[in-house]
Write a structure and sequence with these properties.
It is a single chain. With about 325 residues, the chain is mainly α. Helix content is about 60%, strand content about 0%. It has 16 helices and no strands. The longest helix has 17 residues. The radius of gyration is 20 Å and the shape is elongated.
Length: about 325
């Protein structure tokens, strides 16, 4: 299965001739971190959609494998440069041959045709920001909704802000203190402060728990980490960071879009890292239940393994 799937990704990368370095980096990330196989990419064949479909079905007819290959081909196409008609046509033919959902094709078409409003709505509707907002509403209720509205208007919700600023005084080594240090180190606003939307706390806690920094490449890595443990479709999760930091499409009011700032290898390493976590850290926990505990203990509880590299920050 691994060699056939990777052949599909290489087929997309070769569509315009020699694969680009970024497309190859993405495929190596899939090979090394998700599939964990030793295969020489240049030895893999170029396959037509029909041949790719036949080979995949011969190994396992479960449509999930074909869906994963189609999504992988879409991500490779996005890393490969500006969206183009040949890539869109190959994705359409592949989705038809696979007889699976054409959602990745729709996303790519929206980018190609500059239907960015629809793309933004799709990403926000399906991605982790909606999930984080819903979780915050469940956990904090109406006060969180009001505080979020104030934050977006540049106003402070003093009660919520004071509660979160109290974490500065938590014991050294605690999860709460580590979170407060993360906010201050990056010059971010605490939830309740002007610009500090409460739903973002869950994402920022993933930075702290997973050991991720805040450069654009690190944001890609932490969203990969989230994609590894979330209940959401990983493709939807990754599309947020792809839009923001690879394609330059602003989908969040808090982050300006940038182009070609992601590290493809780091994203897939993040996914592998997140797959070992035993709990959805965005929707299944309330950080306040754990802020008083040592950070090392919280990581052990959720089986968050050492990442294997140090976090990176813009001002380092």
């Amino acid at each position: 299965m691994a060699s056939v799937g990777l052949a599909g990704l290489m087929t997309m990368a070769r569509l315009d001739g020699t694969p680009s370095p970024r497309a190859l980096a993405a495929i190596r990330g899939v090979r090394d971190h998700l599939l964990q196989v030793e295969l020489k990419l240049t030895d893999l064949p170029t396959l037509t959609p029909a041949d790719l479909n036949t080979k995949l079905r011969a190994i396992d007819d479960n449509p999930q494998w074909r869906e994963r290959v189609l999504r992988g081909m879409t991500l490779v196409a996005l890393f490969d440069g500006e969206p183009g008609e040949p890539q869109l046509e190959l994705l359409k033919q592949t989705a038809n041959a696979f007889e699976v959902s054409g959602k990745p094709v729709t996303v790519y078409r929206q980018l190609l045709q500059h239907k960015l409003t629809m793309l933004r709505l799709d990403i926000l509707r399906r991605g982790f920001i909606k999930e984080a907002a819903f979780t915050t509403l469940q956990q904090e209720g109406l006060p969180a909704v009001l505080a979020t509205a104030k934050a977006l208007l540049g106003q402070e919700d003093k009660a919520m802000a004071d509660r979160h600023r109290s974490l500065i005084n938590y014991p050294s080594g605690s999860f709460g203190k580590a979170y407060a240090d993360f906010i201050r180190r990056n010059g971010f606003s605490f939830p309740g402060e002007a610009g500090g939307a409460p739903p973002i706390i869950h994402h920022d806690c993933c930075h702290v728990l997973g050991g991720y920094g805040t450069t654009a490449a690190e944001e890609g890595a932490v969203v990969g980490f989230q994609a590894g443990f979330e209940r959401l479709d990983p493709f939807d999760v990754l599309m947020f960071v792809m839009a923001e930091f690879e394609l330059g499409v602003t989908t969040s009011p808090l982050v300006a879009g940038q182009q070609h700032q992601l590290d493809p290898e780091r994203i897939f390493a993040g996914i592998s890292h997140g797959m070992t976590v035993n709990t959805d850290l965005l929707s299944a926990i309330n950080p306040w239940d754990y802020f008083a505990f040592p950070l090392t203990e919280v990581r052990e509880r959720f089986n968050i393994q050492p990442r294997g590299r140090q976090p990176e920050y813009p001002n380092d």
